[in-house]
Write a structure and sequence with these properties.
By secondary structure, the chain is α+β, with helices and mostly antiparallel strands. The protein has helices at 2-9, 12-25, 27-33, 42-51, 53-60, 64-77, 94-130, 158-184, 188-233, 238-264, 284-293, 311-331, 368-379; strands at residues 137-140, 143-146, 298-302, 337-343, 347-355, 383-389, 392-400. It folds into two domains: 2-186, no CATH class; 193-400, Heat Shock Protein 90 (2-Layer Sandwich), CATH 3.30.565. It has a five-stranded mixed β-sheet with strand order 3-4-5-7-6.
């Protein structure tokens, strides 16, 4: 118990909370001083200090900026390490305004009560400490105590009084914090709005991660294969080595464009730099040629006119194909890859198939790239699967041509 009390007394938050409580105590006396019916008697003054400010504080709570100001002050002085428990948004609606008004009234009343109690306790403690030194009779809480050198036993009451003062300071601040969390905490609507914002941020981060994984992952896979083939054949087939190096250059350049475009979404600028367009099915020829230049045997049958595919569907279909080719080159190097892209009146059907290489372990559709592939299809209302069948690895996707609004 003593250790907890000592720890609380050594924390700066204890005193910032006490100051926050005492600031509220100043509201009532200030209003009473300017009140026409001001009376100098203490009981009347305290009663007036508790009653006179109430209408003003309730009306003041309806001002939207007041809730923001009170939330900011409470965060700084009450909960410096728990900011999420007290909102900063201005009052939106009558309910939030009344909650703010009630907070102002409770803060003023509680501050006035705590200040009065502390004043009495400090007065009692001071009186007890001076009893042995003064040759007079003192009244402590209605009890008369005669002073003088023979009354040193009274000093034994000073430490408990100081502990009581410390307890009041600590407890008042903790109760102030609890009430602030209740009345200044985010409302249900604010919590829902914050949850939606966090969900949007999470979706954006997942999208950026998928873009980087698919584009940069494919580029690195193709570059590694091309560089390895060029190293093996540079003395035997110089023309092939030159083509491989050229393909590495083009693949790297496209990867840099993708990286710059994707990272551009993370930059906060008033005038964002122009970003390169995301690749679509119109760029499928370059993708297939890059895979062939990396040493893969790619056989393809694709629809003639892919311009009829909506932009968002075309972009996601390109990424799905890119991820499927990356997996084929990574897990089955040298195995032929068959790509089929068909268009119907309702769907884009994509199928990428390669022979499984003996001894090569596949993730059975649990890798990050394959998970991203399924997520891309699901976001469009389609579906994508990855499975092994009859010694072949098959990645297929069906995407709707018409998205539901």
């Amino acid at each position: 118990m003593h250790l907890k009390l000592y720890a609380a007394l050594t924390r700066g938050a204890t005193y910032s909370r006490a100051l926050h409580v005492l600031i509220g105590a100043a509201v009532g006396p200030v209003c009473v001083l300017v009140y026409p019916g001001f009376s100098p008697s203490l009981p009347t003054t305290l009663a007036a200090a508790a009653v006179v400010p109430v209408p003003l504080l309730l009306l003041l709570g309806l001002v939207p900026a007041v809730r923001h100001a009170e939330g900011l002050q409470a965060r700084l002085m009450l909960v410096p390490s728990s900011e999420g428990q007290i909102g900063l948004a201005p009052a939106r609606g009558l309910a939030a305004g009344w909650r703010t008004g009630v907070w102002l009234v409770v803060r003023a009343w509680w501050g006035l009560l705590v200040a009065s109690v502390l004043a009495q306790l400090l007065s009692v403690t001071g009186t007890l400490a001076t009893v042995p030194a003064l040759e007079r009779t003192s009244t402590v809480l209605g009890v008369q105590i005669r002073g003088g050198p023979g009354r040193t036993w009274v000093l034994a009451l000073v430490p408990p009084a100081l502990l009581l003062i410390a307890g009041v300071v600590i407890g008042a601040g903790q109760l102030q914090l609890a009430v602030a969390r209740r009345l200044l905490g985010p409302s249900t609507a604010e919590r829902l709005a914050e949850a939606e914002r966090l969900a949007d941020e999470l979706l954006a981060r997942n999208w950026l991660a998928a873009e980087l994984h698919d584009s940069i992952g494919h580029a690195l896979t193709a570059t590694v294969l091309q560089a390895g083939a060029a190293r093996e054949l540079i003395d035997v087939n110089r023309d092939f080595a030159i083509r491989a190096l050229t393909s590495i250059e083009e693949t790297g350049r496209r990867a840099m464009d993708d990286l710059e475009r994707t990272l551009g979404h993370l930059k906060e600028a008033e005038r964002p730099a122009a970003r390169t367009a995301r690749p679509t099915l119109a760029d499928i020829g370059q993708l297939l040629e890059a895979s062939r230049a990396a040493g893969a045997t790619v056989r393809s049958r694709t629809a003639e006119d892919v311009t009829v595919v909506p932009g968002v569907v075309s972009r996601e279909a390109y990424r799905i194909l890119q991820e499927a080719l990356t997996n084929a080159m990574k897990h089955a190097p040298g195995a032929p890859v068959d790509v089929v892209l068909d268009l119907t009146d309702e769907h884009v059907d994509l199928c990428v198939t390669n022979t499984l290489v003996p001894g090569t372990r596949r993730a059975h559709g649990t890798g990050k790239g394959l998970r991203s592939l399924r997520e891309r299809a699901a976001l469009l209302g389609g579906r994508a699967t990855a499975r092994s069948e009859s010694g072949r690895w098959i990645v297929s996707a069906r995407l709707p041509l018409r998205l539901e609004s």
